[in-house]
């Protein structure tokens, strides 16, 4: 079995696997072809890949020799157009928001696994790339806010007087939100949190955050750890309460999402205008429309004296550890498909394989995807 890894798109610093993953794949009896320079933005050199046992080559050679292609996100144009029915692509393709690329892959008749659809179950935890990347985003969001805020995060008692701790408001306490709470607390901020799932209340409290409850949220235990859409009436009520708390906050970190849907709008223009001068909004949901009405995807803007940051790829700003975590998740996923003898065989009846298989031999087979794009 031959696995191929390409350099990602120009604006992506991560790479699907690092040299340490090549070593593990070789032990599993798998050959690895790496495109020249694929790991350079993640600080993994060509020499390190070769020393780990990979073969360094050009994109065209990989396309003609490899069967399995590993990617971080949608492959770059020239790779995408070379994918054919002999290939199996495994990556995080964000299919609901990348329908045009999914159509190209469908026409190529390749088989495609999208790791966005790894279920949030105990067995699949070690393959959950979205959780790994959200952990990084939650961490980076707080670090960035702390470095840009014109105030301290912790309380300070000094000869020059007492400085109050910063107030951080976190919208959404899923993977990114919980990480953001933990880091903001470690830096000494006072943290308040909104979420619609009551299950996270105790976790928020145990991390030192104050959970603010809005009554009447819709919950669905069968949604696999994800939230469900709320009624407009509930969102209105929630927006008002968020307005009251945001106007006293120094930083708002937005992480609220309903999987596969446009992000819920929680922070209105009027709320931003009520915030203190010098405050910062970091909207992690920027790529799906943002939780803040004013967010612009992949841009930082000032609205009056409030800075709104809409970066949608923090993991790419921490490429070494992001690639390490991503590669570990990928490897755990690949283990489902590789026999002890290094033979490739896809167990299509396995629940994780079923959940992640988007296209099988040119046919879209993923029920969840089909539901979400309806
Ligand atoms: P998650 O599903 O684990 O968490 C989202 C949380 O939002 C859930 O706890 C959910 O209950 C909550 N939520 C939903 N509706 C809400 C509402 N109306 N009010 C309050 N809370 C609500 O998601 P995650 O993996 O933590 O990702 C969070 C966001 O971060 C997503 O939008 C994701 O795309 C984004 N993300 C951004 C980056 C980046 O670099 N910007 C990287 C990774 C993930």
Description:
- The chain contains 13 helices and 17 strands.
- The protein has 374 residues and is of the alpha/beta class.
- It folds into two domains: 2-117 and 319-360, Rossmann fold (3-Layer(aba) Sandwich); 133-316, Rossmann fold (3-Layer(aba) Sandwich), CATH 3.40.50.
- An eight-stranded mixed beta sheet has the order 3-2-1-4-5-6-16-17.
- α6 runs antiparallel to α11.
- The two termini are 37 Å apart.
- Bound molecules: nicotinamide-adenine-dinucleotide (NAD).
- Nicotinamide-adenine-dinucleotide binds at residues 130, 133-134, 137, 171-177, 194-197, 200, 226-227, 230, 238, 255-259, 263-264, 266, 284-285, 288, 311-315.
Reconstruct the topology from this structure.
Layout: E1 2-5, H1 19-27, E2 31-35, H2 46-52, E3 55-57, H3 59-65, E4 68-70, H4 77-80, E5 88-91, H5 99-108, E6 111-114, H6 129-148, E7 156-158, E8 161-163, E9 167-171, H7 175-186, E10 190-194, H8 201-206, E11 210-212, H9 232-246, E12 251-254, H10 269-274, E13 280-283, E14 300-303, E15 306-309, H11 319-334, H12 351-356, E16 357-360, E17 363-364, H13 367-373
Parallel strand pairs: 1-2, 1-4, 2-3, 4-5, 5-6, 9-10, 9-12, 10-11, 12-13, 13-15
Antiparallel strand pairs: 6-16, 7-8, 14-15, 16-17
Helix pairs in contact: 1-2, 6-7, 6-11
Bound molecules: nicotinamide-adenine-dinucleotide (NAD).
Nicotinamide-adenine-dinucleotide (NAD) binds at residues 130, 133-134, 137, 171-177, 194-197, 200, 226-227, 230, 238, 255-259, 263-264, 266, 284-285, 288, 311-315.
């Amino acid at each position: 079995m031959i696995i191929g890894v390409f350099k990602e798109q120009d604006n992506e610093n991560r790479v699907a696997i690092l040299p340490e993953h090549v070593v593990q794949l070789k032990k599993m009896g798998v050959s690895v072809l790496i495109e020249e320079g694929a790991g350079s933005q993640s600080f993994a050199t060509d020499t390190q890949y070769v020393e780990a046992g990979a073969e360094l080559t050009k994109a065209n050679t990989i396309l003609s020799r490899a069967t399995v292609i590993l990617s971080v996100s949608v492959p770059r144009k020239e790779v995408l157009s070379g994918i054919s029915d002999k290939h199996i692509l495994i990556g995080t393709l964000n299919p609901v928001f990348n329908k045009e690329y999914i159509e190209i892959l469908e026409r190529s008749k390749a088989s495609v696994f999208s790791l966005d659809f790894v279920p949030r179950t105990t067995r699949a935890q070690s393959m959950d790339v979205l959780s790994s990347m959200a952990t990084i985003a939650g961490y980076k969001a707080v670090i960035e806010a702390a470095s840009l805020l014109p105030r301290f995060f912790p309380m300070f008692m000094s000869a020059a007087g007492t400085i109050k701790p910063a107030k951080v408001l976190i919208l959404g306490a899923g993977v990114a939100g919980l990480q953001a709470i933990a880091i903001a607390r470690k830096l000494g901020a006072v943290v308040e949190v909104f979420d619609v799932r009551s299950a996270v209340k105790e976790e928020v409290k145990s991390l030192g955050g104050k959970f603010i409850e809005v009554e009447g949220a819709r919950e669905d235990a069968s949604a696999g750890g994800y939230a469900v859409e709320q009624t407009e009436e509930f969102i209105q009520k929630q927006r008002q309460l968020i307005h009251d708390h945001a106007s006293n906050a120094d930083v708002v970190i937005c992480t609220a999402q309903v999987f596969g849907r446009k992000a819920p709008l929680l922070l209105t223009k009027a709320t931003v205008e009520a915030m203190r001068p010098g405050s910062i909004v970091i909207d992690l949901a920027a790529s799906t429309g943002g939780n803040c009405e004013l967010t612009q995807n992949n841009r930082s803007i000032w609205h009056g004296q409030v800075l709104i940051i809409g970066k949608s790829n923090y993991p790419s700003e921490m490429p070494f550890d992001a690639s390490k975590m991503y590669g570990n998740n990928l490897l755990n996923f690949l283990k489902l498909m590789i026999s002890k003898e290094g033979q490739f065989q896809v167990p299509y009846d396995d629940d994780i394989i079923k959940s992640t298989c988007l296209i099988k031999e040119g046919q879209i087979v993923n029920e969840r995807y089909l539901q979400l794009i309806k």
